[in-house]
Every structure is written in structure tokens, then in C-alpha cells.
Amino acid sequence: MRKLIFVIAVMLVSSVYGQAPLPPKKTGKAKPAASTPAAEAPVSKTAASDISAVVRVFNQWGYIDKTGKYVINLQFDDAKPFSGNLARIKKSRDWGYIDAKGTYIINPQFDRAEDFSEGLARVVKFREWGYIVKSGIFAINPQFNDAGDFIDGIAIVRKGSQWGIIDTKGNFVVNPQFAELAQFSEGLARARLGREWGYIDRAGKWIINPQFNEASDFDGDLACVRKGGDWGYIDKSGTFSINPQFEDAGNFFNGLARAKKMRQWGYIDKKGTWIINPQFDDAGDFAEGLARVRKGREWGFIDASGSYSINPQFDKAEDFSK
């Protein structure tokens, strides 16, 4: 009996969720077989750090450790991985938070809920976003049409169609005025006014005036932006370090960035020099010394010299992680 449940759970580990801003997917209506009740699963009480994965069997979610033993039995309609000592779970139509024993720390009551960040979690109640503390009490009442996590004491929020910035008391430090606003990265946040993107500081002051058709976050000292039809890279003064010349481009990782020229992908250095000439039909960023690339219909992995470490052979591939 236990072996059967373990096998099913392992097969469904691929359903593990990360952070997702979209509403959770609806589960099916099938019910667990009468011969494999969730209550019979062996449960090992452990710390949140020892919980390996969130798994689903039929339409119920639970948590297992690395041996496949249930730490928290199948009982939720949806569930997310642990963040710190708490995990978000859904029961019926509402979201709440549990600890590593499966005990409700905050009872299910929210339309949506996200992980805690700097002691506050953004949640939706009556179609509006607000922020709660770990007791479940609202620190900032629901009032926003959209919201981001708190980072370094501030959060981006949307009122109506415009974005601004609030502090931990819910007061606006930058009034809503932007058509789009991203989280801060390297001290700057990309913001859109009208159809053009620029970069602001925490006080809402334009450090780089709106002038780009598209823009990415700063990663180190450079940001990838599109001017007209081509992509290039700017520094924090807004000056082009690499002039717009690429059909598409990505961020730098360990000194290399993917870039597209004549419908083919290659990799450049921070001077804009091709280190790996354009030759791939698709390509990913470097991660842990390898980058996934597609030649024809098959994916493989190359090293920083452009040599294949793993020859093309896969129908699909993702970045390496640990």
C-alpha cells in the first residue's frame, strides 16, 4: 500500500510549483481510489528544511521528504513549496498558510496568497491586494489592483492603471504615475511612461529618461534595451556600452550574453565582441558553466568556448541547476 502511494507521488513530482503570479490551475474532479486512502500514508514529522517536494495524487496535494515518505498527508486542493517555515495551501476556494507539521498558522481565507517577504505577504481579499503579517492580520488593508513583494522596505503597487511605490505602513513614497513598473535591481527600476521605458531611483526620480522601446533590469553594470528594432546594452548613466545591433539579446552571465544576428544565436562579451559566433537556432543563458542551445530540432549544451559538452539529442531542455 505504502509502496503504491510512493510510486504515484514520485511520478507526479514534476508538478512541483515555484512562485507564480497567475491564479492556480484547477485540479481535476477524480477522487482517490478507495483502496489508497491518504490517511494511511506514513507520515514523518520533520522541519520545513527537510521537506523535499510538494506532490499531488489525483486531486489532493501533500508534502514528502527525500525518501518519499509523507511529511504532510494528502489533503489540500493546491499547495506551494515551503518558503522559510511556512507554505501556502489552498482548501476549497481559499488560501492559507501551514507550518512543517501541516498545522494551520493562518487559516484559509484569501482569494490569492504569496510567500512572505520581509515579514509581510501580499494577499487578495475581495479582489484587492493587501499585506498581512504572520499572525494573519492585515498590516496594509486590501486596496490595490496589483502589488509586488516588499524588497528593502518598499513595494511596487498599482492603483487603477498606474503604478507607484509604498513603504511598510502603506504610505506612498512615490505616487502612482507609471504605466508599468518593475522591481528594483542594482538600485534602479525600469519604468514605462507612455510607450517608452526609462529607469528611476527609489525616490521616483528619472535617472535614465524614458527613451527605449523595451528594457530589461540592470544585472551588474549593464542593462539590455531595445531602441527602434535593435537591442544593445546601456550603463547606469544611460550611455550605450554596446550599440543597438542585435535582433534579440539576453543578460550577461559570467561575462557572456546570448545575442541574435541574422536569425542565429551566438554569445558576446561586454565589448560586444562575438566569443561564440551566431550558429544556433535557439539558445539560453549560461548557467553553471553550460548553456542550452538548439540546432535544428534538437537541444544540447555548450561550454564557454562554444564546444558541445552534451551533444544535441533532446526534444526540450532547461538550464542546469545544482
Task: Give a nutshell description of this structure.
This protein has one helix spanning 2-11, and strands spanning 53-57, 60-64, 70-76, 78-79, 87-91, 94-98, 104-110, 112-117, 120-125, 128-132, 138-144, 146-147, 154-159, 162-167, 172-178, 180-181, 189-193, 196-200, 206-212, 214-215, 223-227, 230-234, 240-246, 248-249, 257-261, 264-268, 274-280, 282-283, 291-295, 298-302, 308-314. It is mainly beta.
Describe this structure in words.
It is a single chain. By secondary structure, the chain is mainly beta. Among the domains are: 1-110, no CATH class; 254-322, Thrombin, subunit H (Beta Barrel), CATH 2.40.10. 3% of the residues lie in helices and 49% in strands. The strands form 8 sheets. Strands 4-5-6-7 form a 4-stranded antiparallel sheet, with no helix packed on it.
- What share of the residues does DSSP label as strand, in percent? over 45%
| Rg, Å, rounded | 23 Å
**Unreliable stretches, pLDDT < 50, 5 or more residues?**
1-44
What's the N-to-C terminus distance? 33 Å
The helicity comes to under 10%
Query: Structural class of the secondary structure composition?
Result: mainly beta
The backbone outline, from C-alpha atoms, is flat
User: Major sheet, described briefly?
Assistant: 4 strands, antiparallel
Quaternary structure of the protein: single chain
Largest beta sheet: what is the strand line-up?
A: 4-5-6-7
Estimate the mean pLDDT confidence.
88
By DSSP, the count of extended strands is 31
So how many helices?
1
Task: Present the secondary structure layout.
Blueprint: H1 2-11, E1 53-57, E2 60-64, E3 70-76, E4 78-79, E5 87-91, E6 94-98, E7 104-110, E8 112-117, E9 120-125, E10 128-132, E11 138-144, E12 146-147, E13 154-159, E14 162-167, E15 172-178, E16 180-181, E17 189-193, E18 196-200, E19 206-212, E20 214-215, E21 223-227, E22 230-234, E23 240-246, E24 248-249, E25 257-261, E26 264-268, E27 274-280, E28 282-283, E29 291-295, E30 298-302, E31 308-314
